[in-house]
């Protein structure tokens, strides 16, 4: 059966872009200017057993629905539960009113190194469950690189990255993955990853808060917000630790928990010294003598920088892996020596963890002692590290002259089977 009307070959609105992040899927049609986001998770209420998927789950969590068992279809970067992923993709595709899968093409990001079985399963879902007419697959890193090429990124030394050798770091939810590129091709044999990502950092912060302050197990959503609002990467770790020992510690902040009536989000404030008044349970600010409503607050001090520090020194919490700077060094060392200088000069960083204030500066600082003598380090940041892979994918789908050549059609898949997926050079 053939679709009538325009197809993905002539209409950008029929090229559907999906940056399939383990935390959030960023998606749109190639004709759209901004991506939409959907939480890539399913939650089950531990008491009622009610199930919430994608953004419905996100809404529930935002409204203070706790006690949920949350399951992610992607674990450690690999598709773990394809049925759950299908549930979430259904929500996405239902938003494109006139999409008609049989006339549309899906452009999808994947991790740079992936077992065939996972790639095959994804193609099966795309062609057999959803009946798309075309499929394009690429690694997140290739698309981040694509975005960096169009963006004129802000960088330490000025200029734009070379078009010949680049080193792309994606530090997202599940992991931190680095891939060197030569002439636009990823050198997979030199790709290196460490299993430290946003999920691990949030869980670590949760453990610390639950031990020191108040039990927030089962409130991961809240702890994630604390991390995103308050944590940063330090360029002087030991000095900052010393500052935290002072009586008047300028690093300490308080996160006032939301009451879900007046505030759906936690509020940040400087710590204030309160004096408890037992009878009416109100508090007096000793500085201003004013009454303040009693809201539960969590004090966060050195955790603000010691938690993201794990990206740089995972050994601190017993993870026997290199930190991000050494990961880059090890990976570059696997490449031909002639590429070395250019790779250090063209490090592109992306992914949610690159949103931490200080992330790029710290990486720049640590790379100084690892770079070969006489070479330079330049770190390029993307305008929006979270949506950069989506942006690169959109660029590719919109502007690649011969986009059709990069696509596997449903007909090809039916005739040749999984073998045809070898066409995708991730
Ligand atoms: N402002 C911020 N500061 C620090 N971390 C942030 C910020 N915003 C988002 N994050 C974190 O980034 C992570 C998500 O990043 P990203 O969207 O790159 O991952 P993903 O693409 O969904 O997952 P993956 O790369 O593992 O497939 C989450 O852990 C989130 O908490």
From TrEMBL:
Q: Name one Pfam family in it.
A: Actin
SMART domains the record matches: ACTIN (SM00268)
- Keywords for this entry? Cytoplasm
Please tell me the species this chain comes from. Stylonychia lemnae
This protein's gene is called: Contig3472.g3711
Protein's UniProt keywords contain Cytoplasm? yes
Subcellular location, record wording: Cytoplasm
User: Sorted alphabetically, which InterPro entries does this protein's record hold?
Assistant: Actin (IPR004000), ATPase_NBD (IPR043129)
Could you tell me what this protein is called? Uncharacterized protein
Q: Does the keyword Cytoplasm apply?
A: yes
Phylogenetic placement of the source organism: Eukaryota, Sar, Alveolata, Ciliophora, Intramacronucleata
One cellular component GO annotation, for this chain's record?
cytoplasm
């Amino acid at each position: 059966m053939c679709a009538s009307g325009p197809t993905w070959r002539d209409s950008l609105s029929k090229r559907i872009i999906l940056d399939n992040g383990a935390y959030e899927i960023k998606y749109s049609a190639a004709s759209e200017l901004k991506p939409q986001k959907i939480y890539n998770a399913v939650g089950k209420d531990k008491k009622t057993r009610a199930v919430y998927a994608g953004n419905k789950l996100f809404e529930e969590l935002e409204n203070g629905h706790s006690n949920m068992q949350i399951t992610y279809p992607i674990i450690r970067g690999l598709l773990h539960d394809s049925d759950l992923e299908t549930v979430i993709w259904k929500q996405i595709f239902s938003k494109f009113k006139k999409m008609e899968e049989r006339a549309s093409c899906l452009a999808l990001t994947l991790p740079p190194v992936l077992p065939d079985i996972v790639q095959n399963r994804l193609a099966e879902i795309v062609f057999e469950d959803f009946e798309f007419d075309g499929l394009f697959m690429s690694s997140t890193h290739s698309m981040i690189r694509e975005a960096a090429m169009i963006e004129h990124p802000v960088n330490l030394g000025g200029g734009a990255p070379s078009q010949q050798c680049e080193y792309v770091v994606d530090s997202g939810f599940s992991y931190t993955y680095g891939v060197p590129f030569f002439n636009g091709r990823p050198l997979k044999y030199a790709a290196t990853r460490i299993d430290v990502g946003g999920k691990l950092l949030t869980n670590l912060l949760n453990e610390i808060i639950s031990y020191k302050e108040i039990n927030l197990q089962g409130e991961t959503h809240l702890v994630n917000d604390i991390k995103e609002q308050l944590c940063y990467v330090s360029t002087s770790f030991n000095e900052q630790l010393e500052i935290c020992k002072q009586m008047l510690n300028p690093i300490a902040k308080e996160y006032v928990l939301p009451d879900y009536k007046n505030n759906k989000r936690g509020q940040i404030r400087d710590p204030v010294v309160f004096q408890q008044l037992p009878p009416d349970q109100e508090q007096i600010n000793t500085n201003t003598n004013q009454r303040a409503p009693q809201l539960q607050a969590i004090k966060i001090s050195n955790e603000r920088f010691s938690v993201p520090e794990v990206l740089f020194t995972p050994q601190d919490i017993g993870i026997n892996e290199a930190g991000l700077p050494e990961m880059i060094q090890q990976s570059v060392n696997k490449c031909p020596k002639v590429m070395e200088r250019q790779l250090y000069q063209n490090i592109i960083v992306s992914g949610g963890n690159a949103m931490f204030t200080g992330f790029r500066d710290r990486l720049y600082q640590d790379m100084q002692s690892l770079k070969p003598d006489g070479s330079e380090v330049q770190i390029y940041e993307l305008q929006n590290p979270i949506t950069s892979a989506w942006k690169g994918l959109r660029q590719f789908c919109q502007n690649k002259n011969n986009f059709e050549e990069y696509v596997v059609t449903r007909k090809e898949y039916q005739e040749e089977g999984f073998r045809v997926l070898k066409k995708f050079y991730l």
